[in-house]
Specification:
This protein has about 475 residues and is α+β, with helices and mostly antiparallel strands. The protein contains 14 helices and 21 strands. Helix 2 packs parallel to helix 5. The chain starts with a helix and ends with a helix.
Length: about 475
């Protein structure tokens, strides 16, 4: 009787173990795209912008990858692996791979002559050359990825996500960058303009002196780092544009004569309850990794900054004007960037030109706000006013969260809320390991033969002990 009970228990336990294994297998399979990224800086985790872009795809998209077999496999593998991750997020994006040499007619149909990803939705297509997704310190102009050095950075996620955005979004916006006051022009802000263009916000320069009005198709008017004041006539035109529901992105620049010469710029800001102190914000030495005139401000709580704060991506401001806020009826004014309590406002602007930043009794006590988002009482965006502009220059905009903050601000103003987000960053190259033949043989033997035999041996030992008992 005891032996029968023992065998029955063993059978029940075995069936239970098999059942648990089957249930666990089904559960893990149901997780689908679940995975854990253990790489440094979460290198293999898709950005917030990529995920939101993929989830917004409602109609099927084909990603046709044309591969030249002569290209290095490591390059094409980066691209195909990334597209498979895209497919896991939304299976409406279907990935197909073609050999460029074996499918010449299909390649010719899409104008493809080298390794390229062609994104297609309906009749619309977007071609992205694979070698443009890689940059290498040893790569020369005109040299493709197959002959570049083994050291590279990969911008595939940036390129592919931007391509999907332009392919799947039919709505476009128009941003006009004011000129005529020694502001930053498109060439100084070309990286910013390029990113805005990839998010369907086209940037053009505007001379009010020539056109006499803000164009009717303007989604936002940008005034970036003016060095002279607006004329009375220009101010009147801009205020008319704003009164009709126009959006303003005003980003100040350092100017020694601002206090006495910026009457109309100050007037525009006063419409939103914002006052220019005409003092440059300074952080005392030892409070930052940077010089005292370069500040890493804290973020206020707003949709422009919330994701940046959560990701610890900071905006780095330099030569920024301290701003003040007063309540304005019918408006909500939200601080975006704030200095520490140890900061002060340098009033001696002429002294700054001689590198004099010592605090004295004439200076203003901090903390200060360096930027505001202005909305109507019902939450509709009206303006973003910033105390500095240098963070948007080509040489600075790739630092930390500078690009995301600038582009988020413009997207907020034009109402493109889905793109108030975190964008993909450059990725380092694949880390590969080269195995010798003995190492490969040892791994094969241990995983295919030794480990399974150990489990079998353990099972036999447990069975033998139970039988003896």
């Amino acid at each position: 009787m005891g032996k029968w009970i023992s065998r029955t228990n063993a059978t029940v336990i075995s069936i239970a173990a098999i059942g648990i294994f089957i249930v666990l297998t089904l559960f893990l399979n149901s997780l689908g795209s679940f995975q854990v990224d253990l790489t440094k800086n979460r290198q293999n985790t898709l950005s917030d912008q990529t995920i939101s872009t993929l989830k917004a795809i409602n109609e099927p998209v084909e990603a046709m990858v044309f591969i030249n077999p002569q290209d290095a496999q490591v390059y094409t593998r980066e691209v195909t692996d990334l597209l498979q991750e895209y497919h896991k997020i939304n299976n409406k994006l279907e990935v197909k791979q073609y050999d460029l040499l074996q499918n010449p007619e299909l390649a010719r149909q899409y104008g493809v002559t080298e390794s390229t990803v062609v994104l297609k939705q309906g009749e619309r297509t977007k071609a992205i050359q694979i070698y443009n997704m890689f940059t290498s310190p040893d790569q020369q102009d005109g040299q493709d990825a197959s002959t570049a050095a083994s050291s590279y950075q990969f911008s595939g996620e940036q390129k592919l996500t931007s391509g999907l955005l332009s392919l799947t979004s039919s709505k476009t916006y128009k941003a006009y960058l004011l000129n005529g006051h020694n502001e930053f022009d498109v060439s100084t802000l070309s990286l910013l303009a390029q990113q805005l263009g990839e998010e369907n916000i086209n940037v053009s320069e505007l001379s009010l002196a020539q056109q006499g009005a803000v164009p009717a198709d303007a989604s936002v008017l940008m005034i970036v780092a003016p060095q002279t004041d607006l004329s009375d006539a220009e101010t009147k035109v801009i205020r008319q544009y704003m009164d009709k529901g126009g959006k303003l992105f005003l980003s100040l620049g350092f100017n020694e004569k601002a206090k006495t010469a910026w009457k109309n710029l100050d007037l525009l800001m006063s419409d939103y309850g914002i006052t220019d102190t005409h003092a440059v914000a300074v952080e005392p030495k030892g409070q930052s990794l940077y010089d005292p005139l370069t500040i890493v401000p804290e973020y206020g709580s707003h949709e422009i900054t919330d994701k940046l704060a959560a990701s610890h991506l900071y905006t780095i401001m330099s030569l920024s004007i301290a701003l003040k806020q007063e309540a304005k009826q019918g408006l909500t004014v939200t601080p975006l960037l704030t200095t520490t309590a140890n900061s002060y406002g340098e009033m001696n602007l002429s002294g700054l030109l001689e590198s004099k930043t010592e605090r004295d009794n004439n200076d203003l006590a901090g903390p200060f706000d360096l930027g505001f988002a202005v909305g109507s009482s019902d939450g509709k965006p009206k303006a973003v006013v910033l105390g500095g502009s240098t963070f948007m220059m080509n040489q600075s905009i790739q630092q930390q969260g500078n690009l995301d903050f600038a582009v988020n601000s413009i997207n907020y103003l034009v109402g493109n809320d889905s793109q108030v987000t975190i964008r993909p960053k450059m990725e380092d190259q694949y880390q590969t390991a080269t195995l010798t033949l003995p190492q490969a043989r040892a791994i094969l033997i241990s995983t295919v033969i030794v480990f399974p035999l150990l489990f079998v041996a353990a099972g036999i030992f447990l069975w033998w002990r139970r039988r003896r008992a």
